[in-house]
Automatic annotation (TrEMBL):
It is found in: Membrane. The chain crosses the membrane at residues 31-48, 77-93, 114-132, 138-156, 163-183, 203-225, 257-275, 287-307, 394-413, 420-438, 444-464. It comes from Cryptosporangium japonicum. The keyword NAD does not apply. This is O-antigen ligase-related domain-containing protein. Its main location: membrane.
Length: 484
């Protein structure tokens, strides 16, 4: 009973806050139900077997940094304080650094999430943008230390840190569900200031704690992949993360999340029906097990509005005069990508090779972004990891990204002589995330890099974990004695 007191306190607190805000018993009851779900997600995270404190802190730092990019957009010092504190811990945990650095090129995730930073530093230096170069060097150092900390953990303990990163992700999801408990079941929800106000039908969080719905959906799906496709976890835990992913897909109204989850369902079904991975749960009925994720996706698709959900312009960024239907359906992404190409064509040779050096994160500015003509232009992300690598690292950055994705896929599919097949969840995660490269920057890491870090952790465990010595096989019937 004592263990239930924190959960009960959170539920009561959420109900009281909502009642004070709305003076409605019904709204307070809905907030209590949402807070109860949040408490259950937190309990699930804290009871995952195999999670470590170090790995949870490592993943939690990037989860918190991602949330702060939307919560404290106008106060970047807060984001940098979190990253700085994390960097100090990662630097301590990643010793010896030289040994870890030698292993970094072996990880495809390191190529996709790190390579464009030093390239961008070089490009900024070549065109004399020293402030941008210094900021990029700081980013490069922080995220490189995160990868080194993962490598040091795997090589030092021989354990898989991805479970702890998944636990941190679930704790972040729980925090957002609790903070937004008052609007979880509403049609109009809280959202951060700015362009997000046009998407208040989607769940962002609440009480000043926000996260982009697409990123939130991605976190829920990758956590479901990590836990749901591993027999190390109980049936209740696997069903819980699958249901949670469905709930977050519905609340976030995320098309990219649906693509991610759909890809995961396809690969999971293939592996279940082929029975080639020993670490998959021991399903007694394979067909129902393969069909369950698809059932969740059908429910989400129908409940969220069907075809209209897939074609609606979310940001209104593609609705400029003369804007194309494709731009509208992709919420202006295609227009942003065209702007990236135009900027590249006008850039000097150094920026063509090493990336745009205008800002530290190489954000994109468009005159037809849907903002009022008299107001400031939006600083847009590329929302395409390949285009993002090209924007931030130029031609060389795009080449590094393609190489990294290829290396990730090879690691996800290749059977290793000593270690056998890669973990089923890692195969599902890598193959499912590839289609989302077209509409999200997930694979570039950065402050929204929790999903990227989980894949890096799984890849590091697959590639770098110590291999136990193989005992020599002796001929049957021959008795041997130890040599003295």
């Amino acid at each position: 009973m004592i263990r239930l007191l924190p959960a009960a306190a959170l539920v009561v607190a959420a109900a009281i806050v909502e009642f004070v805000r709305t003076s409605s018993v019904t709204e307070a009851g809905e907030a209590a139900v949402a807070a109860l779900i949040a408490a259950g997600v937190a309990a699930l995270a804290l009871t995952l077997p195999g999670a470590s404190v170090r790995g949870t802190v490592l993943g939690g730092t990037l989860v918190l940094a991602g949330i702060l990019t939307w919560t404290s957009t106008d106060r970047p010092v807060v984001i940098w304080a979190v990253l700085g504190a994390g960097g100090v811990l990662w630097a301590w945990w990643s010793r010896p650094w030289l040994g870890g650095l030698r292993q970094v090129p072996r990880l495809g995730g390191a190529w996709t999430g790190l390579a464009y930073w030093p390239l961008g530093v070089a490009g900024a230096a070549l065109v004399g943008h020293w402030t941008v170069g210094a900021q990029r060097a700081a980013y490069a150092g922080v995220f490189a230390l995160a990868v080194l900390a993962v490598i040091a953990f795997v090589r030092g303990t021989g354990r898989d840190p991805s479970v702890a990163v998944a636990a941190a992700i679930l704790l972040g999801v729980a925090a957002l569900l609790w903070a937004g408990a008052g609007s979880v079941f509403d049609t109009v929800r809280e959202a951060p200031a700015g362009s997000a106000q046009g998407m208040r039908d989607r769940f962002w969080g609440g009480l000043g704690l926000f996260y982009h719905p697409n990123s939130l959906a991605g976190l829920a799906v990758i956590a479901a992949i990590r836990v749901g496709a591993d027999r190390a976890f109980g049936l209740a835990q696997r069903l819980a993360v699958t249901g949670l992913a469905g709930l977050l897909l519905l609340l976030s109204n995320s098309r990219t999340g649906l693509v991610f989850a759909g890809g995961a369902a396809v690969v999971h079904a293939f592996l279940v029906l082929r029975r080639r991975r020993a670490d998959l749960p021991d399903y007694r009925r394979r067909w129902p097990a393969a069909a369950t994720p698809f059932l969740v996706l059908v429910i989400v698709y129908v409940s969220s509005g069907g075809l209209d959900h897939l074609t609606r312009d979310r940001f209104n960024t593609g609705a400029s005069p003369g804007g194309s239907p494709v731009a509208a359906a992709t919420s202006g992404r295609t227009d942003t990508w065209r702007q990236v190409w135009r900027d590249w064509e006008d850039a000097p040779l150094a920026e063509k090779l090493f990336g745009n050096a205008t800002t530290s994160r190489a954000v994109v500015t468009r005159l037809d972004d849907g903002a009022p003509p008299e107001g400031p232009r939006r600083q847009l992300n590329t929302d395409n990891a390949a285009v993002g690598a090209f924007r931030r690292g130029g031609v060389l950055g795009a080449a590094a990204f393609v190489f990294g994705v290829g290396l990730l896929v090879v690691h996800a599919l290749r059977r290793r002589r000593a270690g056998g097949w890669p973990a089923a969840w890692f195969t599902v995660g890598v193959l499912a995330v590839v289609p989302t490269i077209a509409t999200e920057d997930w694979m570039l890491g950065g402050t929204n890099g929790a999903l990227w870090l989980l894949l890096v952790a799984g890849e590091a465990y697959l590639v770098l974990r110590p291999t136990p010595p193989v005992e020599p096989k002796l001929p049957v019937g021959i008795l041997t004695t130890p040599v003295k």
